[in-house]
Amino acid sequence: MKSLTALESIERSISKKFRKSIWRPFIEGLKRYELISEGDHIAVCISGGKDSMLLAKLMQAIKRYSLFPFELKFIVMDPGYNEINRQKIIANASTLQIPISIFESNIFETVVKTDRSPCYLCARMRRGFLYAHAQKLGCNKIALGHHFSDVIETALMNMFYGSEFGTMMPKLKSKNYPGMELIRPMYCVHEEAIISWARYNGLSFIQCACPLSENCNIFDASGGASKRQEVKALLKQLKRDNKDVETSIFASLHRVNIDTVLGYRKGEQEFNFLDNWEG
C-alpha cells in the first residue's frame, strides 16, 4: 500500500478523521447561509493562524468537489509582522501548498500609537485593506476564518460589554466597497476541532502577532484581561454542567422572538415594544 505524503495525510484527515467535526459543519455552513455562488471570485484572507490556514485548505477542497465553477485567491496582508512570524506564515503555506500572495500595510505602526480601542481600530483597518486589495484582484468576496466559537463569544461579549444582542454574521455586504461581500465559511466549525486538527497533524501556527500583546501561546492567547478570554473561561465553566450550552446559544441567535424583547435596532432606527402598545 502506497504511503501518503505529509500533505496528502493532512488533506485526508479533514475528510476522514475530522469529517464529522470539521468537514460536515463546513459544508453545512456553506449551504445554510448560501456563501458561495457560481462565478464567485473569492479572496481567502490568511492571517497565519490556525483558523485561516484551515480555511484555505477547506476552500481548496470544496473547489475541487464543487458542482459549479468559482475562483480563489489566497492573500496575506502583512500589517507589520516581525520576520519570525512572516517566515512562519510562508513556511506553513509552502507545507500546505497554499499559493499565497503577500501585500504590505502599516497597521501595527498605526495601532500602537493609539490609546483608545486599539483592537477595534486594528480590525477595522485590516478589513478595509483586505477589501481594497481583493477588489483590485477582481474578487467579489473576501473569506475570513471566524468560526462557531467566535460567533458564540461575540454574542456574549456584545451582551456583557456592548449592551446589545448581536453577533458576527455569516455574510455581510460591504458598505464602503460596492459589490463586495464578506463571508465566514467556518461559521459552524468549533474551535476545539480546529485545534485538534492542527495538533493531530503536528502543525503549529502563529497566534498572537500584535505588538501590543507579547504573552501569547501557540494555540491559546492568554491575554490576561482580554474580554474574549474572560468569555472563553466562562463558557468553559458552563460546559462542565451543560455540554450543549454553546449549541443552545447558537440556536438562540436564529430564534429571536421579537414579541418578547423590550426593543431592537434596525440600521440606525431604534424600536421599543411600547411603540405598538395599545393599552
Number of strands: 8
Instruction: State the end-to-end CA separation.
Output: 77 Å
Low-confidence stretches: 214-225
Count every helix, treating DSSP H or I runs of 4 or more residues as helices. 10
Give the proportion of residues in helices: 40-55%
The spatial strand order of the largest sheet comes to 3-2-1-4-6-5
Overview of this protein structure:
The structure is a single chain. With 279 residues, the protein is an alpha/beta fold. Helix content is 45%, strand content 13%. The chain has ten helices and eight strands. It has helices at residues 6-15, 19-32, 50-65, 83-95, 107-111, 118-136, 148-161, 191-200, 227-241, 245-253, and strands spanning 41-45, 71-78, 100-104, 141-143, 171-173, 181-183, 263-266, 269-272. A six-stranded mixed beta sheet has the order 3-2-1-4-6-5, sandwiched between helices. It has a two-stranded antiparallel sheet with strand order 7-8. α7 (148-161) packs across α9 (227-241) and α7 crosses α10. The longest helix has 19 residues, at 118-136. The radius of gyration is 20 Å and the shape is globular. The N and C termini lie far apart (77 Å). Mean pLDDT is 90; it is low at 214-225.
